[in-house]
Amino acid sequence: MLLLGSHLLLAQTHPIKITKRYLNLPVSQNDSRGTMQFKVNGNPERSFKIRLASEKPDYWVFCDMVALQGKTIEIGYDGKADGLGKIYQDDQVAGQDSMYREQNRPQYHFTTRRGWINDPNGMIFYEGEYHLFYQHNPYEREWENMSWGHAVSKDMMHWEELPTALSPDNMGTMFSGSTIIDYENTAGFNKGNTPAMVAFFTVDNPEKQVQCMAYSLDKGRTWTKYDKNPLIDSKAKWSSKDTRDPRVFWYKPGKHWVMALNERDGHSIYTSKNLKEWQFQSHLTGFWECPDLFELPVDGDKNKTKWVMYGASASYMIGSFDGKAFKPESGKHYYTTGSIYAAQTFANMPESDPRRIQIGWGRVSHTGMPFNGMMLLPTELRLRTTKNGVRLVSQPVKETEQLFKKEGQWTALSSDDANAKLKAMQSLDQFRIKTTIKLSHATSAGISLLGQRILDYDMNSNLVNGVFYSPEDMTSMEVTADIYVDRTSVEIFIDNGAYSYSFQRKANADAKEGLVFWGNRIEVRNLEVFTAKSAWK
Ligand code: FRU
Predict the structure, then answer these.
(1) SS3 404
(2) DSSP character at residue 15
(3) Share of the chain above pLDDT 70, in %
(4) Which are the contacts of 483, defined by CB distance < 8 A and separation ≥ 6?
(5) Dist. CA 50–CA 206, nearest whole Å
């Protein structure tokens, strides 16, 4: 029963004793957002914005109630409250039966069960688990209520989604950031032999963005926010609200912590001995949001390294770093474009496996689904010497191979013969193909999928799908493309990762052709066709 019916005043449910794992909540995009509040023993426990469905829900979202078992809560809502009575608790998420088998659910990319995701956050490898935290709105498939969602995996391909790691608090919402393991107990959060996993994140509120930390002693499952937050409040210094996305790592030669932080017009470097007090060191203009900064061997030579700094768009500079300032030598370059944004790399990789592995947010939506956004394939970043100098290249990690089964390989085909092979493919829903084409009579050529040009190599203007590209051998007339198609997205790696791009699939039910090579008298020098398994059970 509702105490108050008017949507201007707070309507409230009867007390509900939480005995089941989930609280299922109906959402309709036609209803306006209202603020929902949970109270435990009369005290506010959480509040968030939700479009509570007043009539038929478009979809259901859920609250994981694991931390509130046995407690009695009251739910208040200041919006149209007709849907309050439909909220119910259950040990299953509403829609569990079809989870991960929904029609437009990516089958080998990470997506959240319900709600919105954007940036990957706090990516770290620890005790055999890859942790992927991410910007998350659990309550709607649009951006709002920024929290850190959390998933873990042993191989970066099969993910298990865990309860939300960091939720909004009185200071504001939880924006992007990173995690580290404090092996030396520099902050004093460790317990016995258990080192703390420490998260650095931006708290956003209407007034400003400040840098905060929290720590976990149970492998990221539960978090305690530091009681003296914020660590850095630099709005006044920059006369700007844009100060965010701390990326923290240990700088071994100087025995101190480094934080790369985006402040207004570029990336700043701060240093610290104890993770609590931070000193500003330097600032490099020319980047926006989501810094990353790391050292990589050039051509695999450990004795010859360079540092890479990038921002949210993945454009990067190459240079040197002395623990306090990054000095650019070349840039800005790009190695990937398209739907990728705000990519991050895994921290704390073991010495036996020092790969620099990146995951980017894929700005891809999934028609009709109760979730939005996805993570692109994990890729290994390397520095390679090219005709233009040292450049970053990226390729899917070897762990992706388990999901693809090679069904055939052919060489030296005409495009007609190659198209006959493609015609025999069982499903265009999800697959991978790898191909090398050679142009001789055509100035441009490529591949289209259901009417969408997924590969368009323009040898005359030197473009791959509209972006400047000059192959390593500029006389070769060849291009190699490793193409990953999932239900809603395409990712393409050109010439062993020299350039890559990703984008949303456009479903075209009327398309006359399926998957075809186009271009005048091209030679398909190599064609490999793979079926793709689902990563979900
Ligand atoms: C990048 C970004 C970050 C911010 C986060 C908020 O996509 O704008 O700068 O921390 O998203 O969700």
Answers:
(1) strand
(2) P
(3) 98
(4) 432, 433, 434, 435, 447, 454, 455, 490, 491, 492, 493
(5) 19
Task: Evaluate whether 165 touches 134 at the Cβ level (below 8 Å).
Answer: no
The reported pTM is 0.96
- Buried/exposed code over 191-227 (b: 16+ C-beta within 10 A; e: otherwise): eeeebbbbbbbbbbeeebbbbbbbbbbeebeebebbe
Is the distance from CB of 75 to CB of 36 less than 8 angstroms? Answer: yes
Residue 321 β-bridge partners? 326
Average pLDDT over residues 87-96: 97
Nearest ligand 1 atom to the CA of 290 is 9
| pLDDT tens digits for range 308-357 | 999 999 999 999 999 999 999 999 999 999 999 999 999 999 999 999 99
**β partners of residue 204:** 173, 209
- Distance CA(308)–CA(246), nearest Å, equals 16
Report CA 331 to chain centroid distance, whole Å.
24
Total domain count for the chain? 3
Pairwise CA distance, residues 48 & 33, whole Å:
10
15 and 147 inside one domain: no
Cis-peptide into 332, omega within 30 deg: yes
Tell me the C-alpha distance between 167 and 522, whole Å: 54
Domain that holds residue 421: 400-532
CA–CA gap between residue 132 and residue 111 (Å, rounded): 11
CA 437, CA 179: separation in Å to the nearest integer?
A: 43
- Give the tokens for residue 204: 């956003």
Last residue of a domain, one of 36, 70, 97: 97
Distance CA 396, CA 230 (A): 37
Active site residue 353: no
Q: What's the CA-to-centroid distance between 433 and ligand 1, angstroms?
A: 33
- Give me the residue label for tokens 């990789």: 349
Ligand 1 atom closest to residue 202's alpha carbon, by position in its atom list? 10
For the chain, the C-alpha Rg in angstroms (whole number) is: 25
Structure tokens at 481: 């493309």
The answer to whether position 509 is within a domain reads yes
Instruction: State both tokens at 455.
Output: 């590969």
Phi-psi map region of 495: left, alpha, beta (phi>0 left; psi -120 to 50 alpha)? left
Residues 113-120: what's their mean pLDDT?
Answer: 98
pLDDT band at 5 (very low <50, low <70, confident <90, very high): very low
Q: Whose CA is nearest to atom 9 of ligand 1?
A: 289
pLDDT at position 1, please? 33
In a domain, 537, yes or no: no
- Tell me, in angstroms, the distance from the centre of ligand 1 to residue 146's CA: 9
Q: Do residues 436 and 480 lie in contact, with contact meaning Cβ atoms separated by under 8 Å?
A: yes
* Residue 217 sits in the same domain as residue 288: yes
**Of the residues 78, 82, 119, 482, which is catalytic?**
119
CA torsion 527→468→522→510, rounded to 10°? Answer: 80
Ligand 1 centroid–CA 289 distance in Å is: 7
